[in-house]
Structure formats: C-alpha cells, structure tokens
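Hi U.,

Before I forget, here's the chain from the pilot set. I'm dumping it here mostly so it's searchable later in email.
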Amino acid sequence: MKPDASVQKWMYETMVKSRQFEEKTAAVYLEGKQPLFNMANGPIPGEMHLSNGQEPVAVGVCAHLRPEDAVTATHRPHHIAIAKGVNFQAMTDEIFGKKSGLSGGRGGHMHLFDAAVNFVCSGIIAEGMGPAVGVALARQMRDEEGIAVAFIGEGAANQGAFHEAMNLAAVWKLPFVCVIEDNSWGISVAKRDATSVPRNDVRAAGYGIPGEYVEGNDPLKIYEAAGRAIARARAGEGPSLLEVETYRLAGHFMGDAEEYRTAEEKKSLEANDPIPKMRARLIEEAIITAEAADDIGIRMMAEVQEAFGRAASARYPAPEEALEKVFV
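Structure:
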C-alpha cells in the first residue's frame, strides 16, 4: 500500500515544514537565554521539546486521517500538530503566549488544542491515552464517523494510563490506534534500562489485539503499517498497537546537555536524518526534481518566517484575562 506521488510530496513538504518550524523555534527560544540559560527569559519562556527527526511518524500516520478523526499527542507535539492540520499561525501564537494563540496563550507548546481538527496534546506522560480512547468510545456509542489515534513515547508505555486505556479499548473493540514513538530515550533513561521487553508491540498480545513494530524511521513503511491499523479501526475490528523506531536528533528539551548520549550515537542519527533521505528517494523515483525540492524548502521557510513574524508582533493577553476560561 505505497502512497501515490501526491501523498509522498505532501509527506515530504510537511516534514520540511515541521523541521524548519523547529529550527526557527530553537533560534527564537534561545533569545534572552544566553550566555546564562534561564528558561523563564526570552520571547518563548518555559520548557521546549523539539521533534527534529521524528517527522516520519507524524506524516506516515496523519496521511491516513480525516478531519473527523481525533489525535492526542505528547509534550513533543509540533510535528504531529502540523501533519494533522492544526492552525499554523494560531499554534505559533500560542507558543509565544499571545492572545491570538489556540488557547489565548494559556497552554504553551505542550498543551496545544485545536477543536477544528480534533487535536490535543498534553505535557503529562501517557495522559493522551484516556482522552483518545474516550473519543473512540463516543464515536462508537453515537455511531459517528471517525477514529482516534494516541501518540505516546516509548517510556509512556510503562505508565498505568497506557495499560488501562489499551485494555478498555480492546474490551470494547473501539476504533482506536496507539502509536508509540520509540526514540530510545525517556528523557535521559535508555529504553533498555526501563522497559521489560525490547519492543512494546509485543504487549499487544496481552490485550488480544494486533501489534506491529516499524523499523528504520522510514515514512513509507510507517504509512503502510498505519494504513493497516487505521483500516482495521474504520472497519469496526477494534484497536491496534504500533511502535515506530524514530530518532530524536535534538536533546530531550532545549538546554539538555545530552551527556547520556555518545558522540557516535549522535553522529549516526544525523547520518540517518530522514528528510535528506526522503528528498533523495523522491528525486530518484522522479516524483519531484531537485529544483522542486529546493522550491519546497523556500516556500516552507517563507511560511515559517511569516508565522513567527506575526506571532512576535501579536499582543499578549491582559493580566486580568489569566483566570478566564479556566477552573479556579
């Protein structure tokens, strides 16, 4: 089930846009935070988790999704939000904490919410599982179109919320897919030191559902595996569990010294950067030309620059608005 040329071009374009968004975010985030790093300073205060390298997971899965399908994501959400079609300007504004942001500047980059495309993410590990299974249950009870997909990290598969949600999704045969982004590291803890099984897809057997592991951070292989799981959910055959090998090219968060990773590992990951590999494959298969690929890079950079420019000049919410639309 290889995607057609138009889908492959969308996948590449979205990966490029996501990477350029993250690189611009990194540059702006460090403003006011050097030479002494203080995450409270600068135009984007707070923690920042970049998704450089994990773009194939987002496009490989979201290429199959429809507007009515719901997605929950992690504290590292930008690549998935962009692939799901979250309002790009409002997302950028939210990260800057501006009034025109998705949540009026109250949520920041770890708590993006866009009801228009059924997207939400959470800074709490594995806490997207329950809401996603809840959406799937609602779709089933109301006999509505649409499925739910929860993206989590491989460390989150050790949380109670993961197991409770997977169990009920299987018991109720819900239209649900769990996608585990396996970047090998839970902050600074290696997967091999924290997880009792080498691959989390084997845990699917404990729920009596299909599980699949996708190696190589390859967007086309991810597309094929996600297509099988999503088709199963749409057909009313119940949930599936996917674990996808992916690469976190940056640290866990901006400011992470990454002393837990060797220089050799970093070098190897950079050599397997999925975006140059996707570009080379599309050119080799005559899906795009080198000039067209360059043009995609220029257009995506222009979109990112425009969004950041607008976000920087947008106004902050008034202090008295801080307690609006929240439970107190």
